[in-house]
Amino acid sequence: ETGVTQTPRHLVMGMTNKKSLKCEQHLGHNAMYWYKQSAKKPLELMFVYNFKEQTENNSVPSRFSPECPNSSHLFLHLHTLQPEDSALYLCASSQLRDNYEQYFGPGTRLTVT
Amino acid sequence: AQSVTQPDIHITVSEGASLELRCNYSYGATPYLFWYVQSPGQGLQLLLKYFSGDTLVQGIKGFEAEFKRSQSSFNLRKPSVHWSDAAEYFCAVGVKLSFGAGTTVTVRA
Questions:
Q1: Partner residue opposite B43 with nearest CB, options A42, A99, A105
Q2: Of A14, A20, A21, A76, which shows the fewest CB atoms inside 10 Å?
Q3: Does residue A56 register a pLDDT over 90?
Q4: Which helix (H) or strand (E) holds B67?
Q5: Which residue stretches of chain B have pLDDT < 50?
Q6: Is the model more confident about A57 or about A107?
Q7: Which residues, including other chains, have CB under 8 Å from residue B93's CB and lie 6 or more apart?
Q8: What is the structure's pLDDT at B8?
Q9: B105 in helix, strand or coil?
Q10: Which residue does chain A place closest to B35, by CA atoms?
């Protein structure tokens, strides 16, 4: 595997379910990001991790819970979501000393029913 | 606060014609500027970036962008589009990226 991978690519879940999104980067980067992409809206930065430490949480509801066990892996744990949480969730990584250029994964298309 | 405006929501262009996508930004210092492209069902791919130096930046896939500080703009151009350029294009600014809402490009034969 190369670049940034995300699994699953598609997820349908009910509002009472618990699921997790996984992101893995194979680039040796030390920062990882979660974004939410809704139709016709700018990408929304959700969380930022630098060297496994969360450095930013952009007022994201607690039903989204990130986890970063090491610099290569990032998870987004989901529980009791709402239909408006349906979106494309993108993971990205960057090297903090490399002009902050971010590399994106293909995303997970989440549908909440 | 930093922000990006992409005034054009949708652009249709004929194959072989030139393309220009507009981007205006608001940023308190010398900006880091980026253009990304997203094909259907895919993540974002970096086309080009500007940090300093020459204000005309060359990127991948034949794209270029020009930084104009006086106009707070970073417009993306391609002299001759190909059908494979049909995608959504995002301008972004800053260290913690702020993205525009995107411009969808349709290429007609």
A1: A105
A2: A14
A3: no
A4: strand B64-68
A5: none
A6: A107
A7: B2, B3, B4, B25, B26, B27, B31, B32, B33, B34, B74
A8: 95
A9: strand
A10: A101
Nearest CB to B49 within list A45, A101, A104: A101
DSSP string, chain A: --SEEEE-SEEEE-TT-EEEEEEEE-S--SEEEEEEE-TTS--EEEEEEETTEEEEE-S--TTEEEEEEETTEEEEEEES--GGG-EEEEEEEE-TTTTT--EE---EEEEE-
Out of A22-31, A50-59, A80-89, which region has the weakest mean confidence (pLDDT)?
Answer: A50-59
Chain B partners within 8 Å of A107 (Cβ): 42-43
Q: What is the pLDDT of residue B37?
A: 97
Q: How far apart are CA B16 and CA B31, in angstroms?
A: 32
Structure-block tokens of residue B66: 């020009």
